[in-house]
Write a sequence for this structure.
């Protein structure tokens, strides 16, 4: 079978791209291995809510129209929102269709699915950045009596043994899971490496409102100092909740979560923690200060100081002057380790040489280093908000220009 | 008085460092370095170490000259004090690594430094090395570095220089994270 564009992945990014393709009357098909928005439905913990407020859930052609613009959708509500979007835009989704291979041909691409083969001049990779948990190599040295879980396996505290839990990683995932487990009356140790501190609310507004207003979320991939680094920055320590609580390390400490440095290795059954906790916290505090400076400067420059509460700064992160450096994993102090150490994409189906040494796709703002191939839904793909739903909209609207001009060039090569 | 159009010069060639990053992205194997030292026992606790050759950028390299380091223990340990103690070399290594980082980061951020000084203290319970109490570690119980920096920058920008320097420091990493060490006898 033939089509013009194959979109691999039926999440928010693939559907946003589908809508942009439809608007230009570009014949296409969206392959989804399960059902639309599967990861939101199947691969996240029960209490997860979107980090961005409802009003920011925008996809090409639709805005949030519910009655709680400042609320945060649960993962299932996100899945329903995306499923509804697929219906509204009448996306040509083939669900239950796993793509097993994409390879180059003389005139484009051959996409093999479990239900047959498709040929097309253009492919959009929209399979997401969070397909597989990323766990450090030394995880294999953890004694077998410790239960280990990734966030993809974690659902809620009830599934855990009684006893202490170590959560490794202090991004949004780590801080949310650590606080939830702590509330289940277990001792929780949080291993903290590089992290990004953020308050949920500043000067009476949601932090995402400020970041959008001040242009931070729209910062372009070709405007930042070091895009390779920017794409690896962990997610902000945020959670979506009704009480708009802040989930920074001070909040966790006040709940009784114990902070240790980055989990650096296992030696003789002992977990070893880096002595760099103070530095990591200082870096995060300073970075937060710079973000708030940007917000305050924007507010003043736009004459809005009278319409919001005055600027203030948050207490520096409180760090034990001598945080513990090791923990005997055989002592029973902890029963469970949760590796909130990030995710990585799964491109095992991609039979084209476009991956870098770290297994990520080489691309320039989503234009993959293979003619007619595009990537959407990766961190800082084209702008800081690329990994958010709202970012899918903006990126799809940019990438459709790239894709359709490629098709034009291909149709009339003489015009160059 | 500072004039804004004077180019920042901390004596660090940032362009060369950034150029190296680009070059090493294309040739990651050239990034594999090996640092070396030799050590010769003198007498008692006195030893003399030297540093001259190292490997990097795909070939053997040499320092401009051979550097020599005498290490010994102080007289209160019944030694002759022919040099700094090995643990003091660790403090020297950390302070000099962080200070080099401060200068490099400042140059990259176009901050002119006027003076940078650091004091560094390493606390140690010597009952560990004396084998008196197996619950006491041999090494430092804590290390405290205190910087005094005069530069054309705000207090937060200066704090950020020092924080970033730690983030990029080899010796800071060596001290704060575990390292596999194998010691063999020929």
């Amino acid at each position: 079978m033939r089509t013009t564009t194959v979109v691999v992945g039926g999440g928010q990014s693939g559907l946003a791209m589908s809508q942009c393709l439809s608007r230009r009357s570009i014949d296409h098909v969206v392959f989804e291995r399960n059902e639309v928005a599967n990861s939101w439905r199947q691969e996240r913990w029960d209490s997860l809510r979107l980090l961005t407020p409802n009003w920011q859930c925008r996809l090409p052609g639709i805005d949030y129209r519910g009655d709680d613009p400042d609320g945060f959708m649960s993962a299932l509500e996100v899945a329903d929102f995306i499923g509804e979007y697929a219906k509204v835009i009448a996306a040509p989704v083939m669900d239950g269709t796993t793509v097993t291979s994409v390879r180059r041909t003389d005139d484009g691409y051959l996409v093999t699915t479990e239900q047959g083969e498709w040929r097309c001049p253009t492919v959009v990779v929209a399979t997401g950045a969070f397909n597989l948990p990323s766990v450090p190599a030394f995880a294999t040295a953890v004694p077998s009596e410790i239960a280990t879980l990734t966030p993809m396996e974690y659902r809620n505290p009830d599934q855990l043994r009684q006893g202490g839990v170590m959560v490794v990683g202090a991004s949004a995932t780590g801080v949310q899971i650590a606080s939830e487990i702590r509330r289940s009356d277990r001792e929780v140790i949080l291993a903290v490496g590089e992290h990004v501190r953020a308050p949920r609310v500043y000067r009476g507004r949601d932090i995402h409102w400020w970041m959008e207003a001040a242009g931070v979320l729209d910062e372009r991939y070709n405007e930042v100092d070091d895009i390779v680094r920017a794409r690896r920055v962990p997610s902000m320590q945020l959670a979506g909740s009704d009480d708009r609580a802040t989930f920074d390390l001070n909040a966790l400490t006040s709940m009784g979560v114990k902070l240790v440095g980055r989990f650096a290795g296992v030696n003789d059954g002992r977990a070893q923690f880096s002595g760099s906790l103070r530095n990591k916290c200082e870096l995060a505090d300073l970075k937060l200060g710079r973000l708030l400076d940007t917000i305050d400067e924007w507010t003043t420059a736009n004459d809005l100081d009278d319409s919001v509460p005055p600027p203030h700064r948050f207490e520096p992160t409180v760090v034990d002057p001598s945080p513990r450096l090791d923990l005997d994993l055989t002592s029973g102090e902890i029963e469970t380790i949760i590796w909130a150490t990030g995710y990585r994409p799964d491109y095992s189906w991609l039979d084209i040489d476009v991956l870098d040494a770290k297994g990520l796709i080489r691309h320039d703002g989503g234009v993959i280093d293979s003619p007619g191939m595009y990537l959407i839904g990766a961190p800082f793909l084209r702008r800081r908000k690329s990994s958010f739903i709202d970012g899918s909209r903006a990126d799809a609207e940019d990438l459709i220009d790239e894709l359709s001009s490629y098709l034009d060039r291909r149709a009339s090569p003489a015009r160059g | 008085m500072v004039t804004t159009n004077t180019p920042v010069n901390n004596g660090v060639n940032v362009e060369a460092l950034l150029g190296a990053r680009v070059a090493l992205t294309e040739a990651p194997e050239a990034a594999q370095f090996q640092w070396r030292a030799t050590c010769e026992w003198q007498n008692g606790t006195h030893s003399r170490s030297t540093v001259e050759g190292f490997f990097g950028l795909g070939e053997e390299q040499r320092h401009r000259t051979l550097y020599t380091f005498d290490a010994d223990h102080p007289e209160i340990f019944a030694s002759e004090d022919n040099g700094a103690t090995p643990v003091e070399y660790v403090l020297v290594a950390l302070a000099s690594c962080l200070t080099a980082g401060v200068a490099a980061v400042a140059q990259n951020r176009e901050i002119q430094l006027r003076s940078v000084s650091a004091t560094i203290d390493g606390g140690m319970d010597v009952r560990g090395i004396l084998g008196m109490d197996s619950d006491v570690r041999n090494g430092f119980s804590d290390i405290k570095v205190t910087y005094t920096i005069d530069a054309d920058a705000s207090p937060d920008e200066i704090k950020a220089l020092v924080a970033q320097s730690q983030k990029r420091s080899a010796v800071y990493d060596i001290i704060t994270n575990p390292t596999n060490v194998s010691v063999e006898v020929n």
